[in-house]
């Protein structure tokens, strides 16, 4: 019996299946990171891969993020396509120098002769009751760096296909995985023709206001749209999928239709990706906007202890409040 091409699976499982497919089809693909082998990763995203592909393809590394990324750079120079895992978002900073000073610059430094097909997987965001340094949202720090692609799926299908596309990219890709969504299930068609990696997706159509989000906040914005619909308001939800490059055309098209925009992300509002979106859309859509672009996100403060994280993270009420303020103009 032929294996079903459409399967329902969790986001974590979709990434696992995507990595498995890449390992099967390209002998130059390697998976590296702390506990990715025997343990299968702390979230079990790489579960079973070392057993099936061996310790030379799925490599348990020392606890040394700078060394992990530095080794991946060397492997990429030798023609490999390493996929490295940073175990938690807050652990990436020891590797930040390697990523922004070396990984992001190699292509330009070599005048295009050297390619850097490295994927850096980073579980990110809050909502799981973790301890300090385990719930950060540092995506804008990487989006600011020229030479890096920064993407984040919000559902199982995108998790599967965007990982495939990231591994196939000759440029380095920072792949942020929303850890609170690891267990959310959805349908994955493993024989579909996926959208381009950096194209935004309209997750729900609407006419009164545009909600823009990515990663863990897309599900929340869909819930906001459901709640608003009960009051007769039609909200459009745009899933960015890619943070760098950013699909401003898709956002512009939506805002020209609705006249209003609220941007939602877990990361702090101050100098967050929402600030860039607000500035660009104000420039592009000035005569279409019926209200200022509003932003909802985290506070400009260290991420709080787990008992307080629900006060820090955007929730239904905070986003609905921004929707009400926008529609009141």
TrEMBL record:
The keyword Oxidoreductase applies. This is Alpha-ketoacid dehydrogenase subunit beta. Its cofactor is thiamine diphosphate. The keyword Oxidoreductase applies. It holds the Pfam family Transket_pyr. InterPro entries: THDP-binding (IPR029061), Transketo_C/PFOR_II (IPR009014), Transketolase-like_Pyr-bd (IPR005475), Transketolase_C (IPR033248). Keywords: Oxidoreductase, Thiamine pyrophosphate. The lineage of its organism: Bacteria, Bacillati, Actinomycetota, Actinomycetes, Kitasatosporales. Residues 9-184 form the Transketolase-like pyrimidine-binding domain.
């Amino acid at each position: 019996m032929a294996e079903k091409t459409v399967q329902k699976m969790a986001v974590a499982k979709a990434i696992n299946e995507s990595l498995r497919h890449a390992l099967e089809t390209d002998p130059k693909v390697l998976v590296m990171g702390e506990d990715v082998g025997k343990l299968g990763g702390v979230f079990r995203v790489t579960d079973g891969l070392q057993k099936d592909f061996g310790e030379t393809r799925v490599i348990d590394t020392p606890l040394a993020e700078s060394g992990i990324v530095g080794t991946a750079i060397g492997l990429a120079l030798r023609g490999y396509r390493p996929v490295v895992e940073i175990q938690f978002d807050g652990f990436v900073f020891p590797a930040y120098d390697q990523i922004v000073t070396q990984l992001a610059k190699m292509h330009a430094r070599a005048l295009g002769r050297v390619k850097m097909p490295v994927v850096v997987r980073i579980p990110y965001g809050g909502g799981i009751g973790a301890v300090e340094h385990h719930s950060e949202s540092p995506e804008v720090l990487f989006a600011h760096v020229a030479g890096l692609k920064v993407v984040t799926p919000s559902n199982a299908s995108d998790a599967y296909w965007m990982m495939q596309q990231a591994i196939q990219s000759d440029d380095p890709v920072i792949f942020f995985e929303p850890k609170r969504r690891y267990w959310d299930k959805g349908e994955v068609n493993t024989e579909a023709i996926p959208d381009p990696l950096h194209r935004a997706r309209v997750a729900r159509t609407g006419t009164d206001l545009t909600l823009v989000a990515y990663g863990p906040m897309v599900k929340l914005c869909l819930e906001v749209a459901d709640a608003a619909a009960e009051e007769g308001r039609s909200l459009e939800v745009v899933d960015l999928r890619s943070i760098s490059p950013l699909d401003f055309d898709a956002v512009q098209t939506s805002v020209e239709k609705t006249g209003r925009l609220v941007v939602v992300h877990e990361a702090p509002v101050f100098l967050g990706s929402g600030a860039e979106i607000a500035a660009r859309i104000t420039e592009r859509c000035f005569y279409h906007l019926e209200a200022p672009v509003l932003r909802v996100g985290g506070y400009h403060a260290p991420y709080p202890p787990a008992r307080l994280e629900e006060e820090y993270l955007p929730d239904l009420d905070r986003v609905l409040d921004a929707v009400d303020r926008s529609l009141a103009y």
